[in-house]
Amino acid sequence: MNSYLRSWEKAFDFKGRSNRQEFLVFTLVNLGIYSLLYGLFLFFQGPSVGIQAFSLGALVPTLALGARRLHDINKSGWWQALGIIPIFGPLFLLFLMLKEGTPGTNDYGPQP
């Protein structure tokens, strides 16, 4: 839970590095929240305002964490732009995010 909350605390921090654990915990907890909100949406058959509000609220923290995660493998946060390429982009980006970080200090700071 600390990894998840740490990601929200650093919501606007696009500098530094984040390890795989922080990325995976944040992603999986958000996936659980999306699933819960979608289930409520289907159950009540109402507007999906909750899903849209959470998506909008989590956008900047997700981008910031993605940039820090890419910094951990010594790549620029701008590599996230690959996500707009259909099919290949998100898969390659996921591959990059799951790579082991650079040991020691790299161009973006000390190892987290």
Provide an overview of this structure.
It contains 4 helices and no strands. By secondary structure, it is mainly alpha-helical. The chain has one domain. The chain is globular and about 50 Å long. The protein starts with a helix and ends in a 14-residue tail after the last helix.
Observed structural traits:
112 residues, mainly alpha
How would you summarize what this structure contains?
The chain has 112 residues and is mainly α.
Q: What are the SSEs and their pairings?
A:
Layout: H1 2-9, H2 20-44, H3 49-72, H4 88-98
- Overall form: globular
In whole angstroms, how far apart are the ends?
17 Å
Instruction: Compute the number of helices.
Output: 4
The helix-strand sequence is: HHHH
SS elements, strand count: 0
Helix content: 55-70%
Which residues sit in consecutive blocks of at least 5 with pLDDT less than 50? none
Share of β-strand residues: under 5%
Largest sheet features: none
Number of domains: 1
